[in-house]
Specification:
The complex is a heterotrimer. Helix content of chain A is 26%, strand content 19%. Chain A starts with 15 loop residues before the first strand and ends in a 9-residue tail after the last strand. Chain B is built from 17 helices and 10 strands. In chain B, helix 7 links the parallel strand 2 (120-125) and strand 3 (161-166). The chains are: A alpha/beta, B alpha/beta, C alpha+beta.
């Protein structure tokens, strides 16, 4: 329905409005509503249905306040009481308005609404998970009458068995509709609804299906009562028993902040940052810092039964547990021996994309100063070394962020919602609410943006994206000769191309060019990145660039030089910091790319490997080949959490500290820092990697690794990486914001104002940016792929957070978090196949076939299919060659159900 | 008393079962008003309607011309929604307009489209009015075929389009913003006001919602003149009005009368008094949402002001008459059941309050209630005046008020009977049998007279 | 099995009458019900596809409005008003009469032979002809036992 109300997180006007709050004069901005200004002035107005990130429903009526209205014809006369109380969440402030939030009328409203809500609410507190952080409990104590007069039977519902992650206890629902609005607006799909009418109405999904989107878990937090609760967490603990640690997600390169709730060091649940209500921190029901389901439910992988928490040394054919010191000695010794026997270049260092900046920094320092080579890398997910280098070129030119929004956004390819969920959410919501143009170019458009009214989609084949960007930049610079070719690429009329060019040229103010580096393992990046950067240069200085890679600390690892050819700072500064002799060479060339490592091992050029994390090795697509190669190594030192196929081939195994067991810093897509925080030290004999590397380096004779704490490492690192940094390691820790912070600053968390983001570069000066020069390089040509045969499609793919992942595989409910394979198919293609959305289909690539669900979306370009690889079943080791695939509706059998 | 006969301008053919199709309508002078209106400016049309004093006939009684003038200048497009949802219990006067004189309504719509500079109107007809919807659709088809509707209405170069749209069973969709939400294709949820529909209505655009009878008056005002309309006047209530009278009168029906007629005249003169020589117990003047009137208080005019002076509201002019066989507690139960069933469920006070009131009332009627329950009920429902009690004035829309007022009013006017029910633990009227329309259903074995008379 | 597949042209003409396609949702559901007698879950999915919304949104609408039948009805569906004006003029007795005489056993709302189904509804706007009922799409007022017999007798 047409939303008549003003969204809370839209920016208010600039005009001052003076009014009275409980007889005190206060000032707000035109367009603000009573509730936000009141919160800012320290007056909290109780509310259920209003949420800073959602449209205004105005249905709980708890925020009713008494108002007196001035007479416009007689401004000096005392204001007269309005005939009825008004809701504070939707009523805009006006000059001379007198608002009373604690008067007799207001109190009667509050008591009345509380009594009404408790009329049908079951007395479940003793068995309800929400106890202790429940808004119904809280408001009953603070605003309720203290007794009930209800003597009749309460309405009762059957309990649905709908969602594996979210428990729905319908009797407790107060019909605030936050969950319905969240799924519709933020989640992107109206998958929950209000059914029936009146007292008996209830919330559910169609046909009792699951709440199926990656952000669905957030409705658990924003539900003010215990209706929607976490099933994995059900009955596990009382929230007041839990310790809270403010940390960051290791899954989402968006840089999402989290609170880990632990009991006796064991992770019980993960939520968005908690906030202070009175004297305690509780879950924040007004949170805007939504997290994805993997972050929420998948962060406990450190507790898996396969966890190895002691260092091990290979003696004979077995890995024997031993003391850390022994393992360090053994690792140092064998690496030194390999170096002596085969040369410095025969050893490679691999770093997990989820490593902290300190760990990446030390790994790079180790490779360059202790081993003496340039063989350090983390970029295993790229098809070729050239792709990885193109991604690094992208990082070199990254200069964008979402601070203060944007006037327009161009998205090049990408499946953002399923790769960097909360970043996608912030971009999409800003564009949708502020009606900004969203121009989507490439072989895949993220269907998550389908509700953005300003959306324009231009589809093309994968190999053509680069050419399209190139022609577009020419057109913007005034050369329209290529418009015809561009029109053909996009299959639109030439006038449409001209109108797109005009639109882009007409954008005023800061705008964003966002490019996904995830598609097809980066196969086309060597051409696409230069093309995108050329477009950026053509568009002008107000356009900023954000390359998107889902690896959590990609930016951070790039910053600290944990890859071939990069140093963490200027050579001079590095020499000084690392105490390198003026005459000595710092190896910064010819380094071993991660992706070529397996071949190098097979060919005997690499004999020794130090890997921080087995997950980086797990990303290599052909695991059989990888495992065979690992067995060829003379020295294989790996620091990891688990007993796995990979770690069992180690010669020395170091038990690493998990995501909850170590401190460090990570960088996000926008170049901001976030603190990973240790809860209570590593498990058993596990050690954080900074200790391991310090130990090995020192034992190999280095004197430059004299660190006593990870903070020492950070201080050295940050001085090189961001000389302008004026904060501190502990200063980057997140403290939960105050109770009403979300209320007084709607949209603030999404805008990442410093109160929510201690690592904000505007505050601490650490802006991870490298090049401000417009790109002027060449755009390599790309061979056009052969068109698909009749009845076939070009197959495109990308990563998916719910897919095969080394750490996710070890989460306690991994089987509930993984998504089933699906294929996105364009509606026109679906029509020719007689394929309906949600129906089963068979995808055939070469000789392999798998069953998938068809998702009919204006996502893939016509003639192409988009398959989230990693959802399993197909070995896409095509390494970037364009593949063709067939798709047919599955035969319906009696057993098949929709 | 001799019954004064007045002319029938809206429904001269009310006694007929025939529909006045296009040919007959034009033969009787139909579409002359539209021809006149096409030669006027929108401002002129709005002023004529303002001058006539026409007030909405749906229930709220808002001055129509003033409502039209709230549209922001220049904002286009704007829409007209015709409220044919007629669901207020007791009301049955819009249906005869649609079934018997559909072109009167169409003409009124097109004249109004010209006045408010809109090109598109939807007639939202409640789903239960199958026949009215069919008749309206056929009449609209006739009008399109005759060039009255279309892109070139009557050759004027202006567009006038009407869509006949059916509801599907929801009283709440008679609330103007809820009608718009339903028309948009959603659950019939009222919208928060402000902003008001004239500023932001259908699809977020400026929209006017008018009742069927209101629009049917417009052609009459244009042809017969403002002075004629104003010649029927009581205080600020002008024009002839359709009254739906039902219940225990000898002659229930739809009566077209000026608003100077008093309640006493209506019941005893026009409708022949109470059936079977029973006593009047109470009367509801304006649909089930209005406050109950006692027999000692019938000398008021049936205008907006007149009924207000008697402590109730004219509303949709639906008069329901109850004789002494009706238990007021039972009537309150029936009324509250209606609102419980029809509450949309959006907001807390109405969703929970309507159900709670009904539950308590059922226990008072059927046994198991205490005096404490009565106090609670009075606390929740209020005393029948606006903004008293826990529901009225606190809900998103007026359904909360509409649910609370009759209950509050019943409690006030018949408090002693509620107390008697509680003391007895059962309903003392239980031996009653109802009478059907021709009084021939089941013989009465009933004889309950209250031990003390109506008071206050 | 798509029930509206053969009426796509008619549907597009319907959608074109409204400034917004979503407004055709209630009329489309009426189309389904008039054709099939009731609205099934499958047809809700089909309508969702035509309109371009989710099935949950269609079910929200279907379950809000009382006249959309979510189960099949009898051959002739009776809607008997039980609100105030009809209630004081004998609607309860009329309902009892119908249920006793026309084959409704044990409080069921469908007669045993599937000929009639009955539901008590709120005010249907025939107050001055109370008590009143709808049988199929036709309104009957001023009910008496005789008139009830005559009306229902004519519905085989």
């Amino acid at each position: 329905m047409a939303d008549q109300t003003v969204h809370p997180s839209l920016k208010p006007g600039t005009e001052d409005i003076r009014f009275f709050l409980n007889d005190r004069e206060v000032v707000g901005k035109k367009g603000e509503t009573i509730i936000t200004v009141a919160a800012r002035e320290g007056v909290y107005i109780p509310h259920y249905c209003w949420h800073p990130s959602l449209s205004v429903a105005g249905n709980c009526r708890l925020c009713l306040v008494e108002v007196h209205l001035p007479d416009p014809r007689n401004p000096d006369a005392p204001a007269k009481p309005a005939p009825k109380p008004v809701i504070g969440c939707q009523t805009p402030i006006s000059n001379g308005l007198r608002v009373y939030t604690e008067s007799k009328v207001a109190q009667e409203c509050q008591q009345g609404m509380m009594e009404f809500l408790l009329v049908n609410h079951p007395l479940d507190c003793p068995i309800c998970d929400r106890g202790g952080e429940c808004q119904l409990q809280r408001y009953s104590m603070e605003y309720g009458a203290g007794h009930t007069r209800m003597a009749d039977e309460k309405r009762k519902f059957h309990k649905p068995q709908a969602d594996p992650l979210i428990d729905i206890e319908r009797n407790r629902c107060i019909m605030c509709t936050r969950c319905v609005r969240f799924n519709d607006e933020v989640g992107g799909e109206h998958v929950m609804g209000v059914f029936d009418r009146g007292e008996g109405n209830y919330i559910g999904t169609f046909g009792q299906g699951p709440v199926s989107n990656i952000l669905s878990g957030n409705i658990i937090d924003i539900c003010p009562v215990g209706c929607l609760t976490s099933r994995p967490f059900r009955f596990k603990a009382r929230v007041w028993e839990l310790a809270q640690t403010q940390s960051t997600s290791i899954w989402d390169a968006s840089g999402a902040k989290v609170t880990h709730w632990t009991r006796n060091r064991k992770l019980m649940r993960t939520t968005p940052p908690s906030r202070k209500a009175h004297d305690r921190y509780t879950v924040n029901e007004d949170t805007e810092e939504f997290i994805d389901n993997i972050t929420r439910f998948g962060s406990d992988f450190g507790l898996h039964a396969d966890r190895w928490d002691e260092s091990r040394i290979r003696i004979g054919g077995t890995l024997i547990p031993g003391a850390f010191v022994e393992a360090v000695r053994q690792a140092a010794g064998s690496l030194a021996k390999t170096k002596v026997n085969h040369g410095a270049d025969s050893i490679a260092v691999l770093v997990s994309p989820r490593a902290t900046m300190e760990e990446g920094f030390l790994a790079a320092k180790f490779a360059r100063t202790v081993i003496g080579n340039d063989n350090v890398d983390w970029r295993m997910s790229f098809a070729t070394a050239a792709s990885a280098d193109a991604a690094s070129l992208a990082f070199q030119h990254a200069d964008g962020d979402l601070n203060d929004g944007f006037s327009a956004v161009v998205l090049v390819n990408g499946d953002y919602l399923h790769q960097v969920p909360t970043f996608a959410m912030r971009v999409k919501e800003y564009a949708r609410l502020n009606n900004k143009p969203v121009i989507m170019i490439g072989h895949h458009h993220d269907a998550y943006f389908s509700k953005c009214a300003g959306r324009r989609q231009y589809g093309c084949r994968p190999a053509e994206t680069s050419r399209a960007l190139e022609l577009l930049s020419l057109a913007i610079k005034g050369d329209a000769a290529g418009n015809g070719e561009l029109a053909k690429i996009f299959s639109v009329a030439e006038s449409e191309v001209a109108s797109l060019v005009d639109l882009l040229k007409g954008v005023a103010g800061k705008a964003l060019l966002i490019q996904s580096l995830e598609d097809m393992n980066g196969a086309y990046l060597p051409s696409e990145v230069p093309a995108a950067l050329t477009l950026k240069a053509a568009l002008g200085a107000t356009w900023k660039y954000i390359p998107v890679l889902r690896d959590r600390n990609a930016f951070g690892l790039y910053a600290v030089g944990a890859q071939p050819g990069r140093l963490p700072g200027s050579e001079e500064a590095v020499r000084k910091a690392w105490k390198i002799n003026e005459k000595a060479q710092i190896p910064t060339a010819g380094g071993q790319h991660a992706r070529d490592l397996v071949a190098a091992i097979e060919e005997g050029r690499i004999k020794g490997l130090l890997a921080l994390g087995a997950d980086v090795l797990y990303s290599y697509p052909d695991q059989d080949r990888l495992l065979a190669a690992l067995e060829k190594l003379e020295t294989f030192v790996v620091s990891d959490l688990f007993n796995s196929e990979i770690t069992r081939r180690a010669t020395v195994f170091f038990a690493a500290a998990s995501n909850l067991e170590r401190d460090g810093v990570m960088a996000d897509l926008e170049g901001n820092l976030a603190r990973l925080k240790d809860v209570d030290g590593p498990t058993g004999g596990a050690r954080p990697d900074w200790e391991t590397l310090t130990g090995i380096a020192t034992m190999m004779g280095s004197t430059a690794f004299a660190y006593e704490s990870v903070e020492d490492v950070f201080n050295e690192m940050i001085r090189l990486v961001a000389p302008g940094f004026r904060g501190s390691f502990t200063g980057l820790e997140l403290a939960g914001p105050a109770n009403d912070h979300s209320v007084q600053d709607p949209g603030g968390a999404r805008r990442r104002t410093p109160a929510y983001n201690p690592g904000d570069y505007r505050v601490d000066g650490a802006h991870l940016r490298w090049s401000s020069e417009p790109f002027a390089g060449a755009i390599p040509a790309v061979a056009a792929e052969a068109p698909a045969a009749a009845g076939q499609f070009l197959l495109t793919w990308g990563e998916h957070v719910q897919g095969d992942d080394y750490h996710l595989n070890h989460a306690s409910i991994a089987h509930l978090l993984k998504a089933k394979p699906y294929v996105e198919v364009h509606p026109a293609d679906a029509a020719t196949l007689a394929l309906e959305d949600g129906k089963r289909a068979v995808l055939t690539v070469g000789t392999e076939s798998i069953e998938v669900t068809a998702r009919v979306r204006k996502g893939p370009a016509q003639g192409t299919l988009y398959f989230p690889a990693g959802l399993g079943g197909l070995k896409l080791t095509g390494l970037g060659e364009s593949l063709t695939a067939g798709l047919q509706p599955a035969l319906e059998t009696e057993l098949a159900s929709v | 008393m001799p019954v004064v006969e007045y002319e029938k301008a809206l429904l001269p053919n009310i006694a007929s079962n025939e529909t006045e199709w296009l040919k007959a309508y034009e033969a009787g002078g139909g579409y002359a008003a539209l021809k006149r209106a096409l030669g006027m400016t929108p401002e002129e049309l709005v002023n004529i309607v303002k001058d006539s004093g026409l007030r909405g006939r749906g229930g709220a009684g808002f001055p129509t011309g003033m409502k039209w003038s709230f549209l922001p200048k220049g904002a286009k497009p704007r829409y007209l929604a015709v409220n044919a949802d007629e669901s207020e219990p007791g009301t049955c006067k819009d249906r005869p307009i649609m079934e018997k004189r559909p072109h009167l309504l169409i003409e009124g719509i097109v004249c109004s489209l010209l006045a408010i500079e809109s090109e598109w109107a939807a007639i939202y007809i409640r789903g239960e009015y199958y026949n009215a919807a069919k008749v309206m659709q056929k009449a609209v088809d006739e009008a399109y075929a005759a060039g009255i509707l279309g892109d070139n209405a009557m050759g004027s170069g202006k567009k006038a389009h009407i869509v006949v749209h059916r509801g599907a069973g929801a009283y709440i969709c008679g609330e103007e913003t809820s009608l718009l939400t339903s028309l948009e294709g959603y659950r019939g949820y009222p919208k928060l006001k402000p902003p008001f529909p004239a500023i932001s209505g259908l699809y977020g655009k400026p929209t006017i919602i008018n009742n069927v009878e209101t629009l049917a008056c417009v052609p009459l005002i244009l042809t017969r003149g403002v002075e004629w309309f104003k010649s029927y006047v009581h205080e600020k209530s002008t024009g002839l009005r359709l009254y739906s009278v039902s219940g225990h009168v000898k002659r229930p029906g739809v009566y077209e009368l000026p608003m100077t007629v008093t309640m006493k005249e209506m019941i005893y003169d026009y409708c022949g008094g109470i059936r079977n020589d029973h006593d009047l117990k109470f009367v509801i003047p304006g649909g089930s949402s209005s406050q109950w009137i006692l027999p000692n208080n019938l000398d008021f005019a049936l205008s907006v002001e007149g009924v207000a002076s008697a402590g109730s509201m004219l509303g949709s002019a639906a008069i329901m008459v109850f004789d002494h066989t009706v238990c007021p507690v039972w009537a309150a139960v029936n009324t509250s059941a209606f609102y419980r069933h029809e509450s949309c469920g959006q907001c807390t006070p109405c969703r929970e309050g309507t159900a709670w009131m009904h539950k308590i009332l059922m226990r008072i009627e059927n046994g198991g209630a205490t005096m404490k329950d009565l106090e609670t009920l009075i606390n929740v429902a209020g005393d029948g005046r606006p903004n008293t009690g826990m529901i009225s004035g606190k809900s998103i829309c007026a359904l909360g008020d509409a649910a609370a007022w009759p209950v509050g009013s019943a409690l006030k006017t018949f408090r002693h009977e509620f107390e008697e029910h509680i003391k007895l633990g059962y309903c003392p009227y239980k031996n009653k049998r109802y009478w059907m329309a021709n009084g021939k259903f089941v013989n009465e074995t009933f004889e309950h007279k209250p031990t003390w008379g109506a008071h206050h | 099995m798509p029930v509206l597949a053969h009426r796509r042209d008619e549907i597009e003409r319907l959608c074109a009458k409204y400034p917004s396609r979503r407004s055709a949702l209630l009329p489309l559901l009426w189309m389904v019900q008039e054709q099939e007698g009731w609205v099934s879950q499958d047809s809700m999915r089909e309508v969702a596809d035509i309109i371009g919304c989710t099935a949950a949104e269609v079910y929200e609408v279907v379950s809000f409005y009382t006249m959309y039948n979510q189960k099949p009805t009898g051959r002739h569906h009776i809607q008997l008003c039980h609100t105030l004006a009809c209630a004081i003029c004998g609607s309860a007795e009329a309902g009892e009469y119908i249920k006793n005489k026309y084959g409704f056993t044990h409080g069921k709302s469908m007669s045993d032979d599937g000929r009639f189904s009955i539901v008590e509804v709120e005010c249907i706007g025939a107050c001055s002809n109370a008590p009143a009922m709808l049988v199929g799409e036709t309104l009957y007022g001023d009910l008496t036992p005789e008139s009830i017999d005559s009306i229902l007798g004519a519905h085989a």
